[in-house]
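for the writeup, i need someone to sanity check this before i put it in the appendix. the sequnce is what the collaborator sent (i think, or maybe the updated version? ugh). structure was predicted straight from it, no edits. if anything looks off just tell me and ill rerun, i have time this weekend
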Amino acid sequence: MSVELMVWREGEPVSKETAASTYRAARGTVPDDSADAGVRALADQLPDLVITFPAHALVVMDPEEMDDVSNRVFALAREHGLTVYDPQRDLVHNTAPRCADPTTQLHTGDGMIVVNPDLGLVHDVLGTLSPQNPFAALVTFGSHFIQVSPGYELEYKEGALRHTLVEDLSEVRQAFHEYATGDRAFLDRHTWT
């Protein structure tokens, strides 16, 4: 058994539904070496893991390598301005818009780490909280972080660690979006302990 990531160049951010459709369509084509320069460059940096298609690269890896290889693919895709679709997690990694601080990292309880994630990915990851993905965090190391676990216990640390419970996912998404864009309005909207 193997796991896959599909990589390609996209002119603008796409939804995970559009990315899933692109993935399925590309998987239905015949592999060849005519992919764009960025896709070929990524393929060259991951020898033995990539199958190229007319406009896409399919990265195929063993499940036990998924976290390490995926994190490498996310970084290379960002470097080459490419979109990545993760069919296992049903998540798309767009090239923009990104966090205000480029050192911010997205961490998930199922092993994903993305440096300077796009805001759409942050939004979608928060919808995957479950026993298999028990937390999501945006971390600016050495400064502060925001984290949430199922049940919507929100934690924020900048100096002291603060906790609050929020009622629904939309509130969590708003707080994470504000954190990612440098806004701290979520601190005033909630009662923290």
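Residues 126 and 136 are 7 Å apart (CA to CA). The longest strand covers residues 3-8.
thx in advance!!
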